[in-house]
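Predict structure. Chain length: 70.
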Amino acid sequence: MYVLGICNAETSSACLMKNGLVIAAASEERFTRVKMDNSFPSYSIQYCLDFEGITLKEVNAIGYAWSKGF
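Prediction complete.
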């Protein structure tokens, strides 16, 4: 089972879990070169999917974390 976790609070990022274990994770600022990038983590998501060699259709669940104002 694949679970994709995404966040775009202070620093946007994504991670991919397979059967409860984190197998890939990336911060968006590593791709955009914008410190504390809080845009939607498109590049991070694609990196995680490419790392495992899967498509978004193969992801079973998506967890989205967002909290503004902390």
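Summary: The mean pLDDT is 91.
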